[in-house]
Specification:
Blueprint (H helix, E strand, L loop, with lengths): L1 H13 L2 H4 L26 H26 L14 H9 L6 H11 L3 H15 L3 H26 L3 H4 L15 H20 L9 H20 L3 H26 L3 H32 L10 H33 L16 H15 L8
Helix pairs in contact: 3-7, 3-9, 5-6, 6-14, 7-9, 7-11, 9-10, 9-11, 10-13, 11-12, 12-13
Length: about 375
């Protein structure tokens, strides 16, 4: 009884009107009536099962669409050189660290009767062995390109005839008593389901250098979408979604041509992507979207907790945009002064020199002579 009472108290506090709605408004003001239908938190429950449906659709898409397309473009799974079997190093790799320090390398070299150089090289090759091949990257980029393109087109269809698409003052006219539209419902539900699926699959997707930032981005996006839905910030939410999808299409398409080794097409798309990213994420997003959510609302109602919370989440997204803009500018620098051959965000393979193969063969010779491995 005490636990139930505590849960009820927490629920009442969480859904307190003052947290979600402007002063003098309550949840009763957003009940369906007079031909108006309002967004409800229960509408979002469907996004979780839909996210698993997205994972199934993705699997089918990658297998029956992306893989044959990769074959047409000459992209095949790479045959990678496998490291020499060594139980001592394998045990350390699995249970301790994939990147041992110098002291650990020296200890392992003594235990295996290998040189420190050979141990370093074994770990480098072992790490490369676990990295995703170009076919996996192509399939993943194909799926994201397909979704972002579909979502962007759907967003344009849903918003092209709305007043707030052209005049951001219209976002707040009549707020929060703004009736939910069917197009808004499906736009939100499908986008949220997709981001849930990205969050669920992030551990087995291609791991990039901005892995932590990606998790923060997905969580911030889902939090923004959920809050904007419950607080009826739906109009501005749809504009945020459309702004983000615009550049993502170009990024994924550039990756596809990069994996297919269409260098000129990839470079051209990357330049267009960089321009669109800077315009949408660093100009339109802060100076139109955040300006719309920060400056305009006080003209219509006194600021409340949800007003500040929503803007803080938008600023977190903006900081992530700035971080990614830095990576993009690094790539632009390489593009201008060299050849753009890889994604700065990718966890790329560590390269080997010609001497590496020689020393690896020497290590292999020690193993075959019976002196290379000490078992636990």
């Amino acid at each position: 009884m005490c636990a139930c009472g505590m849960i009820e108290t927490i629920s009442e506090w969480f859904w307190w009107d003052r947290l979600w709605l402007p002063y003098n408004l309550t949840w009763s003001d957003l009940e369906d009536k007079e031909g108006r239908a309002y967004a409800k938190v229960s509408h979002l429950y469907v996004t979780v099962p839909l996210s698993f449906a997205f994972l199934v659709i993705r699997y089918l898409f990658e297998r029956f669409v992306a893989t044959p397309l990769a074959g047409c473009l000459g992209i095949k799974e790479e045959n990678r050189y496998k490291v020499i079997s060594n139980s001592v190093l394998e045990h350390y790799f699995v249970t301790h660290s994939k990147n041992p320090g110098q002291a650990d390398i020296e200890g392992l070299s003594k235990k295996c009767s290998w040189t420190a150089r050979q141990v370093e090289r074994w770990f480098r090759k072992r790490r490369n062995q676990e990295r995703p091949g170009v076919l996996k990257k192509f399939r993943e980029a194909s799926w994201r390109f397909f979704f972002y393109l579909s979502a962007f087109i759907g967003g344009l269809v849903a918003l092209h005839d709305k007043e707030w698409f052209y005049d951001t003052w219209e976002v707040w006219v009549g707020y929060p008593k703004q009736s939910m539209l069917n197009s808004q419902y499906w736009y939100y539900v499908l986008e949220m389901s997709f981001y849930w699926s990205l969050l669920f699959s992030i551990t087995f997707d291609v791991k990039r250098k901005d892995f932590n930032e990606q998790i923060i981005h997905h969580l911030a996006t889902l939090t923004l979408l959920a809050f904007s839905w419950c607080a009826n910030y739906i109009r501005i939410g749809t504009l945020v979604l459309l702004t983000h999808d615009a550049s993502d299409i170009l990024l994924e398409s550039a990756k596809l041509f990069n994996y297919a080794k269409w260098e000129r097409t990839c470079n051209s798309l990357f330049v267009v992507f960089a321009i669109v990213f800077m315009v949408t994420r660093l100009v339109i997003f802060p100076f139109w979207i955040i300006h719309c959510t920060w400056v305009y609302p006080p003209y219509y109602y006194p600021p409340f907790f949800g007003y500040y919370f929503f803007n803080v989440m938008l600023v977190i997204l903006l900081l992530l945009h700035i971080f990614w803009a830095y990576l993009i500018l690094r790539m632009v620098k390489k593009f201008l002064f060299g050849s753009l051959t890889k994604d700065e965000r990718s966890d790329n393979e560590e390269e080997e020199s010609e001497n590496s193969m020689t020393e690896e063969c020497e290590g292999h010779q020690k193993v075959t002579n019976g002196s290379g491995v000490n078992h636990h």
